[in-house]
Amino acid sequence: MSRSGNGLAWSQDRDLDRLLLEAVRDHGIMMFDLHGHVIRCNPGAGAMTGYPNDEVLGRHLSCFYTEADRRSGRPDEILSRAVSEDHCEAEELRVRKDGSSYWADIVMSPVRDEHGRLRGFAEVARDVTGRVMAEKALRESEERFRLLVAGVRDYAIFMLDPSGRVLSWNCGAELIMGYEADEVLGGHWSCFYSEEDRRLGAPDTHLAEAERQGRVEAEGWCVRKDGSQFWANAVITALRDEDGTLCGFAKITRDVTERRQLLSNLKHQALHDALTGLPNRVLFAEHLRQALARQDRHDHLVAVLYLDVDRFKVINDSLGHQVGDRLLVALCERVRSVTRPEDTVARMGGDELAVLCEVDDESDAIAVAQRILKALQEPLSANGHELVVGTSIGVALTRDGAIEPERLMADADVAMYSVKERGRGRFELFNDAMRLRAVHRLDKELSLRRAVERGEFRLYFQPVVELGEGRTVGYEALLRWEHPERGILGADEFIPLLEETGLILTLGQWVLSEACRQGASAPWADRSSSPTMSVNISSLQVVHSDLQGLVGQALAQSNLAPDRLCLELTESVLLDDEEGTANTLDDLKSLGVKLALDDFGTGYSSLTYLQRLPLDTVKIDRSFVAGLGSDPCGSAIVSSIVKISDVLELDVVAEGVETQSQHHALQALGCPLAQGYYFGRPEPAELAMV
After folding, report:
1. Exposed/middle/buried for 282, CB within 10 Å: 0-12, 13-18, 19+?
2. pLDDT tens, residue by residue, 336-346
């Protein structure tokens, strides 16, 4: 019941990287306090050390070392080096809980607060026993090395002489690199590099680094026999005899293109709109911040143009969301075609776009707005429909580099609403008089207040379906306004103003009570497998109301079982006051209700919440579902969300399912639950819950 909120892109990147590290099982990640006691660890650490999470917490770092290393003070040495050198990398023998030993490649780093005070330590470790033993075997005998690695298929493992010529070649190398052994043995390994890398001397440089350091690990592009490239993780180890003389090199390469692509997709999604591929609000704000900072060095204007498609909801409702989505894509492409390469065009949400320009004067910004309006006079093609859409544009300019980006964006937004109120399909420049527009909105607010007092709001219900058996497992309660003149109005028509005026608190309490009452009085209410009832929760309800008390009261009055009530929160709800919101969610969970994260993936740090907050369900945003069957990237992202949710033991609901092909695609990707027009439109209780 609220719009997505803003946040810092850099914070999202850190949260996303941390979650990805926590999710993998082949790296152990542990946090230690100032004295070296374990205060946190990921599943990979448990798998590596053999200690369950509840046993390892509170243990000292020394429990992972041999008795000899403990006597020599090795654990304290690692911590001291981490502090003095800012991090400590080492390859050392470690001991598991059962007493067995393994070699670990570790990086110990100090953790400091914003004032530079040491707060503890973080260690990332990887079990490299196999590699260490392989290197030892390689040093002892080249033949033994060949026998050891010849059958490995997932890694390209081969040896080089000191000059870089290939001495051995395993089957994994044949599969990954595309060369058979007789094609490369005796040849120089530089053939695996691009022509540009060879020109820059990269092959010799990498061998020189391995010879100097003993071992180097890096990632980069590698070239196959057929000329295609793949992203490789490579380790080069210098091999020396007992006298320390260089004998050659061992190289282990793994194709990690798929992993890199997935990470790239996830990071791109954090800063870009899934439907159009344009920057989202977060990235736009960052570009605007940078443009304002440049004003200190250059004499120019920064202009923000805020665009809103006129009557877009009519198109969406009459022709369907698929046509609406394709129309938005076509519109964005048209706007992008009439702006300069250095301008930023972003989708701010829904049918709203923004354009950032650095211009010499006001007339340049006006010219951009005029070009956009003229370009949109020509029809746009969307799923076989030729549509002409009007656009309202608000323009705000500044020479003041100290102005907050949000302020300039808000000014452009005010100018855009001024256009809508005074005729649409035009542009206007922001001026202070536009702030009086708030007065004109009082009429709308008064109408809403009267609607609340007169009880003009109704609940409609949309089914949530289990894809395997096709049975209805829940309903989402959706608010509608039975307007005396305009008929049934969707939430987009009034929810924003309800939140701005605070009326959402009164109406939200009614929605909770009515949804629980309808759920408890439905024909199937007394069955053991009765469907759940989902209710959207506004950020104002979380922050400014006794939500726990209201939910408890609604459950008690309706006699609805707590585990049949699911409260849906969007990411903007979680962003307002993260610590306070987390406490509120814990209080709600104590009642026995379920919690869901709605519109997942449309914000910038959703992945973090899946781990930190007591959620039960993730609802995949309709923008990801829309491209299923036609967009491989969308399918990959949906698949990754399903897999991550499965690991975290969360239910997954795909929203906005409108076609049979989307239904089948979701089943193939392992998504268990879905809702959308394909299964049923929102309807009153007497029609929906039969």
Report:
1. buried
2. 999 999 999 99
